[in-house]
Structures are given as C-alpha cells and as structure tokens.
Amino acid sequence: MENIPTEKVYVAIGTDWGDGFSTLQWTLRKWSNHGISIVILHAANTICKDYVYTPLGRLPSSSVSEEKLMVLEKSEEAKSDKILSQYIAFCGRVKAEVIKLEKNEQPLHKQIVEKPDFCNLFVICGGRLVFLREENDEGFIEDDRGMMVAKLRKNHSIKTWFGKMCLENAANNSSPSSSRINDSAHQWEKWSQEIEQYANELLSTHEEEEGKIDLDSGIFKERPTQLYMPENMDAAERIQFLKRRIQTAQHTIQLKRQQAHAAKKQREKAEWAISICNSKAEELEGSINEEVMKTVDLNKELNSRKGELNELRSEVEEKRSKLNSILELQKELSQKLQLSTSAKAHAEVQLEKAVRTRADMVQEIEELRKNRDVLQRRIEFCKEKDAIAKVSKSYGFGSDYREFSAAEIKMATEDFSQRLRLKSVGRLTNVYRGRINYITVAIKTYSSENARCEEGFTTMVKLLSQVKHPNVLAMIGFCSELNCIVYEYMHNGSLNDALHSTKTSSKSSLNWHARIRIAAEISSALGFLHKVKPMPIIHGNLKPSNILLDRHNVARISSLTAASSSDIISDIQAFGNLVLQLLTGKNWAAAMDTATAVDELDHSAGRWPMVLAMELYSIAVRCFDESITAMPTSEVNDVKKRADELVTNGEFSAPIETSIDVDDLSNVPSAFLCPIYQDVMQNPHLASDGYSYELKAIDEWLKTGHDTSPMTNLRLKHKLLIPNHNLRSLIQDWLNKRSA
Q1: What pTM does this model have?
Q2: How far apart are CA 363 and CA 370, in angstroms?
Q3: What is the pLDDT of residues 628-664, one digit of tens each?
Q4: Rounded to 10 degrees, what is the CA torsion of 205, 207, 209, 212?
Q5: Do residues 9 and 39 make contact, with C-beta atoms less than 8 angstroms apart?
Q6: Cβ contacts of residue 721 below 8 Å, gap of 6+?
Q7: Which terminal residue of the chain has fewer beta carbons within 10 Å of its beta carbon, N or C?
C-alpha cells in the first residue's frame, strides 16, 4: 500500500503561550480528519540592550557583566525551549516540529503575508478564525461567530491590519524577560478572573441543570411513553393535535441541540482552563526552582565575597606589617648612613694626609727606581728561569725536555681552537697559545710536508734541546704524533710588533735604553750559536719578527732550524739591519750615511744619548762589510755598559717601559694574582673556600675531578663559582693607573 503524502501546516506562534495553545487547538480541530504534520514557526527574541531584570529589580545593562548577560540569555532560551516542547506535546499523535526563525531584514509579517499563490493563509485571533468583510467602503474583521474583532479604515487592507498587529506583538515581545513575566502576570490575573467567573457559572449551571433534570423527570414521569390521542376527535382536530405535538417535539429537539452545543462550549472552555492552570502550575514550579537556584547561587557568591573580603583583610594586615618593617629598616639605614657619612669625612681627612705623605715618598721612590730597574730585570729573569726549571722537573719535563701526547696537546690548545691561534708562520706552520699544567706555552705545529721524515724532526728536537742560552727561545717539549714543538710563551710578542705597530702604546714601550739592551742580547745569542762545536748554528732568517720579547722585554731568538744553507756573514748582515731598525724604527735595505741616521732616529724611544747612538750606528754599518767574520758582541756590550752607567748616574733618563710595569709581577698586589696561574686575573671568580681564581683555571681544576681547594687542600663545600665584580673592578683600575 502506497504511503499517502501528509499535508504540512505552518503555525506561526509568538511568545504569548496562551494564545499559542489556542492557535494549536484551532489547527488540530480544523484538520482533525486529515493526515497533516505541523511545523511551528517561532521567532526568537533577545535580551533588552538597555535594561535587564534581576531579583534586585531593573538594572542598566552597563552595570551587569557580559557573563551575567549571557546567563540571562541562556535562561530565556531555556524557557522558550520548554514552552516549545509543551507545544509539541500538546499536538499529541500529530507529527510536529519546531523551526526557530533568526533575525531577518524583512519583518516576519511581511514574510507571512507575501506568501506564494499555492498557500492558504489563516489568521487566528484568540483561538478563532477571523475574516475580512467589506460593507459601504468600510472593512470589518469578524471571527467565525460573526463578532467584529476590528474595524478597518478606508483604503486599509488586511495586510495593513496584520502588519500593525504583528508590529505591536513584536514590540511587546521585544521587551525583556521580566517585562514578559509582568505581562504574563497581568494576563494570568485576567485569566484567573475568567476562570473564577467560569467556575461560578458552572456552579449555577449545575444547580439549574439539577432543577431542570428533576422537573424534566417529573414531566417525563407524567407523560406516557406512548402518544395519547382522544378518540372523539375528528380528522381535522387530530391533524391539529399532531401538529402541536410535532412543534413541541421540534422545540424540544432544538432545545437539546442548544444544550449540547453549550455543553460542547463548556467542555472546550474547561479544557482551556485546565490547560491554562497546568501551564501556570508548571511555570510557577519552574519559577520556584529558578528562584531556589538563584538563592543558592547568591549564597555561594555571598560566601565567596566574604572569603575574598577576609583575604583582602589578611593581605592588608600583611602589607601593613611589611610597611612597618620597611619603615624600621629605613630608619636603621638612615642612622647607618649618618655614621657612614661621618666615617667618610674622617677617612677623607686621613686620605689627604696619606696623599701628602705619598707625594713625598714617590719622589724618593723615583730615585730608587732608576737604580733598581736594571737589576730588577736580571733578578726576574733568573727567577723565571728557576721557576720554569722547578715546574718542568715537578711535572716530568726532566732536565732537558719532555715528550707530550696528542691528547695533552689538544687539551692545551682546546683542539687547536682558532681563538688560541697566534699567527700563521707559513703555509705549513701555525703557532697556538696553550696551557700545560697551569703554565702558558706556545705550541708550534709543523705539517708532514715540512717535517719530511721522522729522522729530520727528531734531529730538530735534539738540536733545540741542546741549545741553552738566556736569549734563545727555550724548548719545553715536543709531540711526535702531531709534529709540534712546545716553547716558552713570550707575553710581549715580537720585536717587529714593538717597532712597527700602529699602536702608540706598543712603540713607546721600548725606550732607547731597552733597544740598546735588546741589541746586546741578540748579539750575545748569535755569538753563542756561531761558536757551537763541531759545527756552528746558522740562523739564516734573522729579522724582527723572529725576535720575541717576554713580559720584561728580554729578547729571545726563535725559529732555529736543524740545517741552514746560509753562512755566518748573512747572520751578521741581518744583525746590522736589525740594529738600524732599533735606532730608527724603520726597515732599511742597506746602510745609510751619518746625517740620515741622525735625522731618522726614532724619538718615540725618548731622547737618545747621541754619542752612544752614533757608536751603535757605526757597529751596524760595519756589519754590512763582507770582510767581517765574527759578531761584534764585545763592542755592543760596551755600548750597553755605558748606557747602563748613564741611566744609573741619572745623566740620561729612560721613559718607563709600560709593558714592564703592567706585567711585572713583583709589583702586582698578591690579591690580583690567580693562585693557580700566578698571573693577573682577568675574570676572577670566588670559590667556596673563600679564594678568588681565574675562571678558566678553577674550571679546569674542577673538571679534572678535584673536589678540594687548590689553596687549603680541604674539601670544597660546593662547586658553585660566583663572579667577583669588586675584585675585577679593582684590577681594572690598577691596570689603568699603571698604563697612564
């Protein structure tokens, strides 16, 4: 059997739920004998943007948070959903669904009135169908009982009236939820009066009906069940008698019909009253539950506010206590500041006295310094040599040299870090600065192409280990795995840097007296090398870049080779050129005349003793003579001796060598020296033993597994290192003053 398609009936319902039930009831009666499905159209409303209604009364929307407004909207939506569910339940077995209409630019009544031609529109007012009737150019709107609902003005249509009615309903329905509650309350008062009046009518109607039933019962008892007609009537009388009986019967039937119709109306009204009462009961129950929930929420919020208030009180008390403590501390600090100010004033007085005393002492010290400088360098040189010898012996260097492993070399240079690379001597040779057993060293690497065979590298190491002279760079050890040799580290770089550097401080660090001394030291070293038996050692590449200076500007010849194709004369000529550079600070390819030499003297070295300068110039010129066969060591030493006498006697002054003063550890405060490196600290850090160390030194000490103090040999409490900013600032100030 084929399914018969059901007809859809669209019912537009507003927020007046009483009128909605009446409209649905009319719809169900209208199509009670047809298979239909009902689609309920509901236009959703929004909360009023100006005011909101709360248990405390009407409040401006601005005084309510967005969260509360959202709660009110959800509450209104829940109420609407509840009423719509009641509408669906009211439809009973008839299939029903709800469509919520969103806001549209076109009003709802225009969307409904401007319907397609194949749709029929029914307007229900108060549960009754209304019609438009025209009479004498006037319009009347009547219900299905003929009662006039509204009167239309001339030229007005049903669309105009329907639009006005919808606008009024929309205006009423656009009010906030509390307004609808007030309208419902007024409507309920109206309905309650109607229901009470209806109940009174029922009581009176019931009494009348009981009387009528008794009367009718009596009448019916008196009347025979069969029609009685006298026998003495003729035919005309009988016809009249029957007509009267028929009229009476018709009247009775009409009366019964009216009673049945009235009973039907009463039943419908009773159903309406029951529905209204049930809805009101559910609404009251929901309102009670909502009020109960609101009361619970308000109690919770009240308790929460009380808790917050208590917390605020506690916080205020705590801050008040802290404020009192701060005020007391401020008072105490103020007192200490006064004491400190008075102590500072007293210290300033003492400082002024000390400054005056120091000025007197400085004058005496300067006199002693002139006589001390020459001896100081010799003493420091001997100390340094002895210290290196002791350290070498204690760490296994032996009396000659030590062979290092590749791991030791890589650890000393941080795996040949570019940060530690000093210079590139050639394509096959590099020099790195490193530390071995807390001693700063220079590590010179040779590629396999330079050291062509193991025997050649061994010969070079053996040669360097046998050369022992104060002015020849000493070899500490070597590493055959990496083809590198470990030398003493020269802190002040090369003579080339000191003579030809663009920095004024580097050039001025070598005064005329130091330059004469360096010439004597180089001459002594070359004379020693040339007298080695059985074969003299020829340097073959003597130049300022191969003359290194230690922290006291003592010269050391470097870059010796195992074999040289040059002869002694080439070394003597190179020495002559080097002396000219010491005198003038410039590089000369050949000898110059005396007048040029006088004009070209390097005045950054101070005021030269002209006699000694010219004598030294003469020695340099003789070195270019190919007939000379030995180094002029004695002549140069004689010039040096006379220069020392001039300085000692005060006949000539030599500017202070800044690099000597900076790196002269004998004048450095002991607190500025690292206990491990025995050098001036650059980044001092405080350990748990109370001593300050250079960060790199103490870090290496801890990383090698030590957990004891390098100074006390006691176990460290912890390995945390703290930067000593105060000590670092003092060291920096001291260095700045020494270099000024």
Answers
A1: 0.43
A2: 12
A3: 889 999 999 999 999 989 888 888 877 655 443 434 4
A4: -140
A5: yes
A6: 685, 686, 687, 695, 698, 699
A7: N
